[in-house]
Write a structure and sequence with these properties.
alpha/beta; single chain; 6-stranded mixed sheet; 660 residues; elongated
Length: 660
């Protein structure tokens, strides 16, 4: 809604423009009327819509044409005043004033007009018969008001209608000639209906109607009021109410009825609550709320966001197969102005045997979007109505900004849930196969992917010591001389080479020495196509010797040429290295090069520290209870229990150490 309203009064001399303004302000007819009233500002707290209102007078005697044109360009609404007892002033409305105003305003953003018939106290008849044809001829005319500055008749109403014409205009909503809603209004209200239809059954039941009412107007409807609304719809159309709920047709009919009865503000209140501006477009403030993004931080979805996405998935998974068919995906995105997901998404996240996006794949895609482009994620959540359904100030409440990565390195632990792995390698080394294998596709399944449907990203979940984490793989194009900061910014690097190609490893070695040898980013070397015969690499050092020299983990054999789904152990190792990025700096195991083992050792040390802290709490609680416990039998039981607990904990630690 606008922050203020500017009303301009124009018309022929002596029709009473200035008298109307002065009567409004003083609440009495002035004895002496100046040629022109000074600009008046009515404070927000005394206007019905709580918006400051500026009222501007025009005087042909005091102002030039250029000044008039400037005022027309600044006005939000223009009142054309005529005298009901002066036919010439009425004729001037169409012969002079409306053409003049239209010439001075843009065709796409016409200013609403209000026809004001003043001096109604001087005649016994109405001028409406003369004015109605004019209103039908010009769509910019919002309404017509007959008033009297002398008797104070309809003075407040005049300026209320003027304010209302700006804040709640009819033009964008309704076509008077066709007596129906305009297509843009139908489109906006249809989205609002679908967002409010929480179970996606095509009707708004009583609970959904009450939620809608409370969301838009801060008050629920009484049961009898709900029935009255539905009865009004039943009396006027056959399919407006279904299964005792309001259908889309009934919902649209109600808003048509509101507008026809002059209650535009009801429809506008709904539209603005759901993010629409005066042109029925979702506002930038609604779609893209401010979110602070410090450097070296990432963006993730929080718990409430995942709960919301789960409810959206359940709402559209009509066959309950835990996957979204192409038709269900289209239905989900009907509240969007465009289809946000292309065919590449089906090769970016997990799918079922039919190639449909699974529930986990669906969450993964949202996680990917939030990580790579948080503004787009905010936009998508806006279309889905997150802030409305979850009653938040904006969809920014769905986003968590992680702490600076340097702090994670200092504290040697992270609170993040999404980790990025950039996959580098020469052409034909097997990078794409490595990404698709993460989604469970073997070589045979990968060959069915169309070239224009391929994706450079793959994301899914892995489990590191019982914790679910998202691993995001990004295939970097093999252009050694033009690796950008985005190509290098990640949590872990995967260097892929083809064991059957003697020239393949050289690219990995050069990339590592050029960009990562002094970096704190962990690196892992993957020996792809391990089902083929391994040939000697042309590089001066063999892959194993290179890894040993630079204290890297030995090359990890990998193949996706299998009958079933490829093995995913390597992705767990990559995620582990990303979670513990300090592990690659030095090694605690005998080989002096094993980063993965160090991660395990670190975690075991953390488990031991946690166990010791828990044991201290038990002993402290026993000590606090000592004053009230005098029974020696209890002391014996407590001591034995603590001893057993300590022995079991030590045994667990020994078992974990032996696993290495």
């Amino acid at each position: 809604m606008r922050k203020d309203v500017r009303i301009l009064l124009v018309g022929e001399p002596k029709v009473g423009k200035t008298s109307l303004i002065m009567s409004l302000v003083s609440e009495e007819f002035p004895d002496e009327v100046p040629l022109r009233a000074e600009e008046i500002t009515i404070p927000a707290d005394v206007t019905p819509e709580r918006v400051p209102t500026h009222i501007v007078d025009y005087s042909e005697a005091e102002q030039s044409d250029e000044q008039l044109y400037q005022e027309i360009s600044k006005a939000n609404v223009i009142c054309i005043v005529y005298s009901v007892n002066n036919k010439k002033s009425i004729e001037k409305v169409t012969s002079h004033w409306i053409p003049l105003i239209n010439d001075r305003t843009d065709k796409d953003s016409r200013v609403p007009l209000i026809l004001v018939g003043n001096k109604s106290d001087l005649v016994e008849h109405s001028s409406m018969e003369t004015i109605l044809p004019i209103m039908n001829q010009y769509q910019d005319i919002e309404t017509c008001v007959e008033c009297s500055a002398k008797n104070l008749k309809n003075i407040s109403e005049l300026f209320y209608y003027a304010q209302k014409a700006v804040l709640h205009p009819t033009g964008p909503l309704y076509c008077p000639e066709e007596k129906e809603l305009k297509p843009s209004c139908i489109k906006s209200l249809t989205r609002i209906f679908k967002v409010s239809d929480l179970d996606n059954d095509g009707i708004l039941n009583d609970n959904e109607l009450n939620f809608f009412q409370r969301t838009c107007f801060n008050t629920p409807l009484a049961p009898q009021a709900l029935e009255d609304v539905k009865n009004v719809v039943r009396r006027n159309m056959t399919d407006g109410v279904k299964d005792n709920g309001l259908s889309l047709k009934g919902f649209l009919f109600l808003h048509t009825l509101f507008i026809q009865r002059g209650r535009h503000e009801t429809t506008w209140t709904v539209l603005r609550r759901f993010g629409y501006d005066d042109d029925l477009e979702l506002t930038q403030e609604y779609l893209f709320p401010m979110i602070k993004m410090p450097p070296d931080c990432t963006t993730e979805l929080n718990h409430n966001a995942y709960l919301f996405l789960q409810s959206v998935f359940d709402k559209h998974d009509k066959d309950r197969d835990c996957a979204l068919s192409p038709e269900e995906v289209k239905d989900l995105f009907k509240v969007f102005p465009y289809m946000p997901w292309g065919p590449d998404v089906n090769h970016t996240v997990g799918t079922n045997e039919q190639g449909w996006i699974t529930y986990q794949g669906y969450l993964s895609q949202w996680t990917l979007t939030t990580y790579l482009d948080v503004q787009r994620s905010l936009e998508y959540f806006g279309y889905l109505g997150y802030s409305i359904i979850y009653e938040q100030e904006s969809q920014a409440a769905a986003i968590t900004v992680t702490r600076n990565k340097r702090i994670d390195l200092q504290k040697k632990q992270t609170q993040r849930s999404v980790f990025r792995c950039n996959v580098l390698g020469d052409r034909g080394s097997g990078k794409s196969g490595f990404l698709q294998a993460f989604l469970g596709k073997n070589l045979q399944g990968q060959r069915r992917i169309r070239e224009d449907h391929k994706s450079f990203y793959a994301i899914s979940t892995t489990y590191v010591y019982g914790q679910e984490k998202y691993l995001l793989l990004h295939e970097v194009m093999p252009d050694f001389d033009f690796l950008s900061e985005a190509d290098l910014a990640c949590d872990v690097v995967c260097l892929v080479y083809d064991i059957n190609n003697p020239s393949s490893f050289e690219y990995c070695a050069k990339v590592y020495k050029q960009y990562f040898i002094d970096s704190k980013t962990p690196c892992v070397v993957v020996a792809a196509k391990s089902d083929l015969h391994e040939v000697r690499q042309h590089y001066s050092l063999s892959p194993h010797e290179f890894c040993r020299k630079h204290k890297l983990h030995p090359p990890q054999p990998f193949t996706c040429s299998v009958t079933d789904a490829p093995n995913k152990d390597i992705y767990t190792r990559i995620t582990t290295m990303a979670m513990y990025p300090h592990a690659h700096l030095r090694c605690m195991c005998a080989s002096n090069r094993c980063t993965y083992c160090l991660c395990q050792n670190l975690l075991k040390l953390e488990l031991l520290r946690s166990f010791k802290a828990q044991l201290r709490r038990v002993m402290f609680n026993r000590h606090m209870a000592q004053a009230d416990l005098k029974n020696s039998t209890f002391w014996l039981r407590a001591s034995v229990g603590a001893t057993v607990f300590a022995v079991l904990g030590f045994a667990m630690y020994r078992a974990l150490i032996k696993q290495r």
